[in-house]
Amino acid sequence: MKLGVGKKPAADSAPALMRIEAIGAVADRLEAAGVEHPQDEARALLRGAAGLTRLELALAPRAPLSEDESRILSDYAARRAAREPMSRILGERGFWTLDLTVAPGVLDPRPDTETLVEAALSLVAEKRDALLSILDLGAGSGAIACALLSELPAAWALAVDISPDACRATAANLARCGLSNRASVVRGRWAEAFQGRFDLIVSNPPYVRTEDIAGLDPEVRLHDPALALDGGADGLDCYREILRDLPRLLAEDAVVLFEVGFDQAARVAALLAAHGLQIERVARDAGGRERIVAARLAPLST
Ligand SMILES: C[S@@+](CC[C@H](N)C(=O)[O-])C[C@H]1O[C@@H](n2cnc3c(N)ncnc32)[C@H](O)[C@@H]1O
């Protein structure tokens, strides 16, 4: 079954596809391209192309596609079959309870990173209404800062990234979520230029070993910026760099949380310990892998 390409159909041409038929055709195309969950993705692409909610599609699956919808869906299907991520095609990603814009040249925030948000919120649960200061190092789309600020009503955040695209994306998502009045976005190299002290320091730095980047899925390798992925020869370069400045930035009783690669928790914990921090928690993602290392300053021995 062929999707329309946007030309007006001739009087004797086949009738417009129904939504349900178009979903089937797109799903076949995605399956042939090796995309997982082709039916779900085809539905999401159709909803995006036709501007439909789940409910609207469920209520009228046999409605015909308009010419414009057919043309947009055809474009979306070709891009997804070429392994462009769904969130980049639709320009949007649900993260935590928020809808965030996914900008070109900026890491597409992942569900795994919600584990960091969850762990951070549970570690500051008793101070939920306090004037907490948050430092988000390598803010990317601003996903972590936005999620934390959305849950901590009196907190403010400093979001830092070295990439101008990321700084713009963070500022745009803060504005989209109505959180700009409690955040500043600064372009910089990790925390090297800052003097203050923070109650909550969070970072999901690049942690992929350089030699592993070529083997990543095309969705990641071709669409996420190398600057957001490459953690150096052993994947830990950015943690080392951040940790050089971190101890002087910690307020009393501050908490630090790092997202780490699936096999890095023990080594990142050792780096934190070597900088005078004690491990507070290691949290696992939905797949049961250790992905978040949380720490505090170790008490001074007497
Ligand atoms: C893995 S992404 C994380 C983005 C976002 N925090 C998230 O969790 O979706 C890492 C981010 O670190 C930024 N970055 C890389 N090197 C940096 C540096 N030296 N200083 C500040 N940010 C850096 C990248 O531009 C990228 O946005």
Describe this structure in words.
The protein is an alpha/beta fold. It has 2 domains: 19-82; 92-297, Vaccinia Virus protein VP39 (Rossmann fold), CATH 3.40.50. The protein has helices at residues 19-32, 38-50, 54-59, 67-81, 86-90, 114-123, 143-151, 164-176, 218-221, 237-245, 265-274, and strands at residues 92-95, 98-101, 133-137, 156-161, 183-187, 198-203, 250-259, 277-284, 290-297. The protein has a 7-stranded mixed β-sheet with strand order 5-4-3-6-7-9-8, with helices on both faces. The chain has a two-stranded antiparallel sheet with strand order 1-2. Helix 2 crosses helix 4 (67-81). The radius of gyration is 22 Å and the shape is elongated. 39% of the residues are buried. Bound molecules: S-adenosylmethionine. S-adenosylmethionine binds next to helix 7 and strand 4.
β-strand percent reads 15-25%
The average pLDDT is 94
Q: How many distinct beta strands?
A: 9
> Main sheet?
7 strands, mixed
Q: Give the N-terminus to C-terminus distance in angstroms.
A: 76 Å
CATH homologous superfamily caption of the largest domain? Vaccinia Virus protein VP39
Helix content: 25-40%
Q: Which class best fits the helix and strand makeup?
A: alpha/beta
What is the CATH top level name of the largest domain?
Alpha Beta
> SSE string, helix = H, strand = E?
HHHHHEEHEHEHEEHHEHEE
Q: How many structural units, i.e. domains? A: 2
Number of helices: 11
Here the CATH topology of the largest domain equals Rossmann fold
Q: What value does the Rg take, in angstroms?
A: 22 Å
Low-confidence stretches: 4-11
Q: Which ions, cofactors or small ligands are bound in this entry?
A: S-adenosylmethionine
Major β-sheet strand ordering: 5-4-3-6-7-9-8
Taken from the alpha-carbon principal axes, the silhouette is elongated
CATH architecture tag of the largest domain = 3-Layer(aba) Sandwich
